């Protein structure tokens, strides 16, 4: 018969803690020395995608600042959730850093689905990795030629306009539902599996309107394959300065942006978070990075961890409002 | 046009680009041969390396890896019944029986020729009609894709050389497995059992490597599939007979056309091209009983099809900026990192990238031919290796390959589960090839049908009366009737010569 002694267990645990503490102090890897080994930047999408490109541009520069390689690791799956859940479960030592977009940071949870982690409890936000607008574009033979015309047409012909997005619950879907709710129009949502088939169908004229990401969309506009209506960002896109924003087109104050946050597991020492934040901001001021950002249509951002957290809270409040106002079903 | 082609060759024929092209196809072949490591995994891993190269050189290297792997995938299919890539699964059906008959050299030789011809015809199509084909591709709406996928499924049922009932069971199992994941139309999760990793569905590579790779290794170890192929390989035993050559001309041309066309449609890809080509060869063959037992037509057609498709997949990618497959989107990502935005203006803005790359394809295909004909003798010697040394390496490679796709241990678990299922299937004589096709086509079929129905506002007549979709649907119906008539005829023939009842596979 084995008698379990709680005292014994507590003692063992205590001894373990002391040993762990001793190991910890013995290790040279203290927060002020950070980093002493390569830092992994976890991306929730496959290589070559827009999130991956952002991560790789920044990783290159952060490697120079931190003096240790910043390695991009792709853990694609579940709209980015697999990667961010992995970061949330990693040691809070600053060597596993995540790139979390609008979906994983806000939308998946706001739509009542389980992302596999809690943005508030499991993760700290280090900074914003730039913002990007969406292009609202139509097939070239669509009758209305401007956004106000399109809205008027949709009002006169409820349910007639079919708009495509890269999926249910993606920023593009919510951005159009937000616009539809604001303008009081009825449009039909056609979800696609990512940007590729969506682009194919709007170029081929199979779907009327599409919510597209730059810079791919900007190239199609330049080749006159699609008709641009407006960009959803706060300011105009550096890639298509001639295209007005939605806000300029009669919906003042409207904005729907894509962004990525740099996140670390909760409990990561403040010194480490500051080092990462400083390296991220240094990259955002580097001329080469700025040039790459310009080519991708990305707007650079300079933020402290506190500012980035406030940004997240404001964005969350906004999207939760949109989901409620537009009456998008949550589970 | 001629100027452009010349400029392309001038770009591709610099010493740097030639060496990178050679390195690309060589590496690609190796990666293709290794089961589990496909071009997608290889290109993802090597993408960062290409950041330090000129954009054209970077693309030439990645492109070489891509079609090199497509070629190499068939080598392991023939020798060890282990498809290096999912599209090489078809090549197992007849390639491995040929190897067991001691004709591995011939099979590899025909594969090299078929791949070269298919690849070259694909490149000609890309050069001559690229933009025009891309326009036709854009004209394909959801209803047309649906009809095409249905045609593929009908063809799949007739692919199995055994009983139609068994193929049907496998296709349906594939369709069911294909429903796992996030439903595109509603955004709901289906059969994910709370696993984040299943929200994107079961991993295709994991499934294919389990069903084919692990299952094959398992049944070989247990000795049910004894390997004692030991024979000397000289140049003569490698060369196909005149009869072989005559039998392959038609399949290669048909395969190249099928592959060339399907490759140009974004999303259709090399897997479907290979299967459809096999189905067509099975239909047009005078003697269908040789299929599955080492019919040379059964490797010539699919091999030329998947290599033609590998080349024409660059049509939508390069001429309109729509990646034809997951591998293609990584290549576009490589361009984006170099500050070149892929789109319809790539051809005019960066002609050296476009034409240089296309010229390198042809050089690369030539390299593949020159590289592989002498290597056949070496490859065949793999068969003389004791199997106990081969299988641990195979299992390790499969695990590494599948893990590296998404840095996912979960997917390695998928391999183990489907390895067990595949072993059981092999013991009771069910072919995993049709399961894979059902798995690939099912989700695309459903997604496109539901999208077409949404766009038609629920009016199915609009899909049936669409000229293109309607014709393809009619073609599927015809194929089904043809298969049924053939089946009835077989039964009648069987009853006539009762002595031959057991012989029917």
UniProtKB/TrEMBL annotation, chain A:
Recorded superkingdom: Bacteria
UniProt keyword list: Receptor, Signal
What InterPro entries does this protein's entry cite? BUG, Bug_dom1
What Pfam families does the record point to?
A: TctC
Q: Which CDD domains match?
A: PBP2_Bug_TTT (cd07012)
Signal peptide residues are 1-31
- Protein family per UniProt: Belongs to the UPF0065 (bug) family.
The protein's name in its UniProt record: Tripartite-type tricarboxylate transporter receptor subunit TctC
Tell me the organism. Primorskyibacter sedentarius
Q: What is the lineage of its organism?
A: Bacteria, Pseudomonadati, Pseudomonadota, Alphaproteobacteria, Rhodobacterales
Automatic annotation (TrEMBL), chain B:
Q: Which residues form the DUF112 domain?
A: 18-437
Alphabetically ordered keywords of this record = Membrane, Transmembrane, Transmembrane helix
Q: Spell out where the chain crosses the membrane.
A: 31-53, 65-84, 104-129, 150-181, 201-222, 252-279, 320-341, 353-377, 389-421, 428-445, 468-488
Looking up InterPro entries in the UniProt record yields:
DUF112_TM
The protein, known as: TctA family transporter
Species name for this entry?
Primorskyibacter sedentarius
Origin organism lineage: Bacteria, Pseudomonadati, Pseudomonadota, Alphaproteobacteria, Rhodobacterales
